[in-house]
Amino acid sequence: MSTDGLSFYLEGTNGKGVALIHGLTGAPAEMKLVARQLHRKGYSVYVPLLAGHGAGVAELRRSNWRDWLESVLQAAALLAPRVDDVYAAGICVGGKLSMLAADTSPAVINAVAIYSPCFRYDGWDVPFYYPLLSSQVGWLSRIPFLDRLSFSETASLGIKDKRMRRMIEGMAGSGILEKFPGKGLVEMHRLGNALKSRLSQIRTPTLILHAVEDDLSNPKHARYIAEHLGGPHELRWIEDSYHMIHVDRQHRQVADFTAEFFEASHAANRT
């Protein structure tokens, strides 16, 4: 497994493994709550650090979405010899990467769970210019100054529960960034386009989890994926959390839904 000091692995007992993928500006530490819940259910869990992450904004600027995808593919490949079945799950960008990784390596990844999918930041609590900027990011990406801009998270950090929010705020030294560069928005846009172009061909069983009150990503993104995905899927709603459902009030429910889906017959026996 990785020796970057931030990735981590939990050895399970049920012969099933999950590659658990963090989001843009995130790091493996943010996935610990769901990782522990899945581990308690018997799963081996590997949480890798995505390329360009964990070492500051300058390092993130030097990476792109294909580098991030390669990190997920490598994680699944490392997990495969240790378990009988491999699954992938991720938050926001991590979920989209998990879907593309499964599409790229269908013989390795049996099913996917995506948390709070987002093609652009347009939730109820984002600054007014975020949706405008996101909708124009295609042509704005050609303007050099965008890469030098940095954007802040919302005041809530995407977390409804104040205690959990303080916990994440205390993870500043674990590779989680407080701001993200414009380059991150550009690469998120390109990743989203790559996924949209493949949705109808993707056959991997996919669980889609999204908060009804998502403050960063409108629930329509989850519906879009459900409506256009070519393979078996399930869309379930999280009722009492914001965007970061994997660390918010219902993170245990997120882990429960994930395990239930991976254990379902349609996930184990792909069509």
Which characteristics define this entry?
single chain, Rossmann fold, 7-stranded mixed sheet, two-stranded antiparallel sheet, 271 residues, 17% strand, alpha/beta, 9 strands
Describe the structure.
With 271 residues, the chain is an alpha/beta fold. Helix content is 39%, strand content 17%. The strands form 2 sheets. The chain has a 7-stranded mixed beta sheet, with helices on both faces. It has a two-stranded antiparallel sheet with strand order 6-7. Helix 1 (32-40) crosses helix 11 and helix 3 crosses helix 4. The longest helix has 17 residues, at 182-198. The radius of gyration is 17 Å and the shape is globular. The chain starts with 7 loop residues before the first strand and ends with a helix.
User: Into which percentage range does the β-strand content fall?
Assistant: 15-25%
Class computed from helices, strands and strand pairing: alpha/beta
Overall pLDDT metric: 85
Determine the CATH superfamily.
Answer: Alpha/Beta hydrolase fold, catalytic domain
Q: Fill in the CATH topology.
A: Rossmann fold
Q: Helical residue percent?
A: 25-40%
Number of domain modules: 1
Specify Rg, calculated over alpha carbons: 17 Å
Number of helices: 12
Unreliable stretches? none
CATH level 1 class label: Alpha Beta
The ordered string of helix (H) and strand (E) elements is: EEHEHHEHEHHHEHEHEHEHH
Which architecture per CATH? 3-Layer(aba) Sandwich
Question: What oligomeric state do these chains adopt?
Answer: single chain
**N- to C-terminal distance:** 31 Å
Largest sheet: 7 strands, mixed
Number of strands: 9
